[in-house]
Amino acid sequence: MALLTLVLGPVQKLAIWRGWRVQNHIPLFYHRLFRRLVGLKVVVSGQPCRVAPVLFVANHASWLDIPALAGLVRASFVARDDLAGWGVFGMLARLQRTVFIDRERRARAGAHFDQMLARLSAGDNLILFPEGTSNDGNRVLAFKTSLFALAERWRRIHDGAAPLHVQPVSLAYTALDGVPLSRRRRPLVAFYGDMELGPHFWQVLRHGRITVRVHFHPPVTAQAFKTRKTLAAHCRREIAGGLGAALHGLPPAS
User: Fold this and answer.
1) Which CATH number is 2-247's, of 3.40.50, 1.10.3470, 1.10.10, 3.40.1130?
2) What is the pLDDT of residues 147-170, one digit of tens each?
């Protein structure tokens, strides 16, 4: 993993600096190899929206969500600004062209939304974890609807002329070395609360092959919802249903 990062990291940094289109492909390749190295098996259902720009909205249980999603779609993440200081992980986030937001200083919210709108307007896709934090992987927390103000701003600016597609995505960690993960054992994979990243990373490597089921629910457009709260409620309902079905071994409803 260190060799992979040392080889591709400088290439990606140069690609971003020079504006080369390959900057959108290197993270996809990197995360697919990373998943194989850490033993993360991704089982996909549904189809990711191919009409850019897309705001992918997903539940959040672990740092494993990052390679799981980034190996499937060409997109950048929206994350807390403190992630930038997480050593190697912060460096990888920057190379993924992550949009960092300061959730403690609301005065900067407008600037953050402007940055995200600029990225979407340029045709970039973004991945949002609207729970605002991770959890034990057994449930979906309440969504922070303020994050969906991005869709409202897009609607006001473009007035229906250019659609912003919003696609709910559910992630469920279902098995360890082929054995179904029980509710009690699922937190072995999840990263949340006051866990430390380093020890958890090595714990995941020791456990064996982890299976995560990723389901892409039907995309909608921001213009189809009158308020950010109704859009957030729709996304949470879809994701919670997908998570519940996957954890019970059922096919997704949509």
Assistant:
1) 3.40.1130
2) 898 888 888 887 767 889 999 999
